[in-house]
Amino acid sequence: MSASEAQPTPRSVDAVVVGAGFSGMYLLHQLREQGLSVVVFEAGTDVGGTWYWNRYPGARVDVESLAYSYSFSPDLEQEYQWEERYPTQPEILKYARHVADRFDLRRDIVFRTRVTAATWEEDAGTWLVRTEHGDAVNARFFVMATGCLSASKMPEIPGLESFKGATYHTAHWPHEGVDFTGKRVALIGTGSSGVQSIPVIAEQAADLTVFQRTPAYSLPARNRPLRPDEIAERKASYRAYRQAQRESAAGIPVTVPTKSALEVSDAERDVIYEAAWESGSLVNLLSTFTDLATDQAANDTAKRWIHRKIHEIVKDPEVADDLCPDYPVGTKRPCLDTGYYETWNRPDVHLVNLRRTPLVEITEKGVRTAEREYEADIIVYATGFDAMTGALTNVDIRGRDGVSLKETWQAGPRTYLGLGSAGFPNMFMITGPGSPSVLSNMVVSIEQHVDWVAGVIRHLDTEGLRTIEATPQAQDDWVAHVNEIAGYTLYPKANSWYMGANVPGKPRVFMPYAGGVGAYRKRCDEVAAKGYEGFALTV
Ligand code: FAD
Ligand code: NAP
Q: pLDDT > 70: what percent of the chain?
């Protein structure tokens, strides 16, 4: 069945899942295997989520393909042939489509359909889920598999509508692509999407001006085609590798560091940082020493080292200075690039440091800063997302007594394990706030959550139970624990989207769980083993 064929929407199912990215696809498969009837609503016209929407030039994964892939089907692992170490968006989308076909997922996915509201109906003990097309579906279980990075965000700049040229957001890239040939391009934003797209756009455009508010730390990806021998080796040892992923801190097995950055000589540290830089792996850089995430002085050694690297590559010292971040390494999501710093040596690429000359408005002709107007034919917004909570609070979710999730979370998201929220029975979130999610290889975290949710539903059905809901006490304790762990780290020192700092008015709360994938999984397994401790279960 093709993605574009209309699906009839059922009136009543066991489970409604929102989103057909990696989370929703796997959840659909798991729940169907358990004999449940499921409908998935997806706003896009095909599966893939992130990899369906983010089609900007240069879009790639920054976790290796042989690690950023499903583990639930050993046959799938063996038969799929990844081509590159860090595949492009089209290759990952091709993989998602392959999975959809192989497991016949599309027959239960309703595409082009945004879920707008979901209400817990106390008497019936079911959710009533409504879509933008006016459909209404009853379900015993309601799962938001809506992604941490799917609610894109335009910047709060006056005059956005006045620009007469073409405007694009990296997360809503046209399927037919954009031809930059001969064009003057303005690009706003230097997070991962900006850092990946800038070198590629620069190759094509007549002239590229980048408007940077905060520089990123970026590491060269050293992407390359995968060698047949390394594919064969991974395929031969996949089970052990997957287990190592699940037990690791970030869903990517690495050599665990044993030394502080402050206990080695400058020369020794340089060698270690150089090796990480050469490896083209973010997780290698972040696990060079035991204390980069927790000790300012230790982190400063990495910061100074990367600043030096930037100055070695970027020839204009003033531009190099502007590209050097001042926040601790790793406290905003670092980037993996292909030719990013080298691109600043091109005569047709210009950097505008918005810290010195703030952005004032978008005009008919381009972008105006406090200093001058920059004319452009195309503006690219690489301005990111209302991360982690945006896709959840965009839906009018009402739990017990009509209480709204959005209002309940006004001071910041409150969850138990990032899986459920008190007052919202039989509702689950995949990689919700309060879980490792964005601090990890997300496919690993997605699979863990899906397996856990499928397990709890199986438990309810086996035991003849009707509802499950986080208790307020367990939730309070978990939120306190998430905050306590974040408090040991340097994360709160940066104005990051992890902290909600990129959205004006959003409460400043560190949203993901920084205790590590392995420890978190253990905790979730213990909760399940103790009869879902911290959840109230009713008949
Ligand atoms: P998504 O892929 O975001 O899918 C959610 C889906 O829900 C979307 O298709 C959306 O349309 C749909 N949806 C949302 N709200 C509604 C609604 N109300 N009604 C109907 N449908 C709705 N992670 C990594 O681990 N490594 C990486 O290298 C990496 N690179 C990334 C690169 C980019 C450009 C971005 C944006 C994210 C990246 N991520 C990466 C994170 C990535 O989001 C996850 O790895 C993963 O793809 C998330 O899958 P998901 O299914 O949970 O969410
Ligand atoms: P992002 O990291 O939030 O970056 C957005 C950029 O836009 C930031 O530089 C931000 O500056 C800037 N910006 C936002 N509003 C602005 C304004 N009003 N004026 C000027 N500048 C403004 O978003 P992203 O680059 O799309 O990436 C989001 C996340 O998606 C990443 O962190 C990562 O997790 C994932 N991702 C991964 C990859 C990958 O390599 N695999 C690629 C893309 C995305 P401030 O920093 O000052 O707010």
A: 98
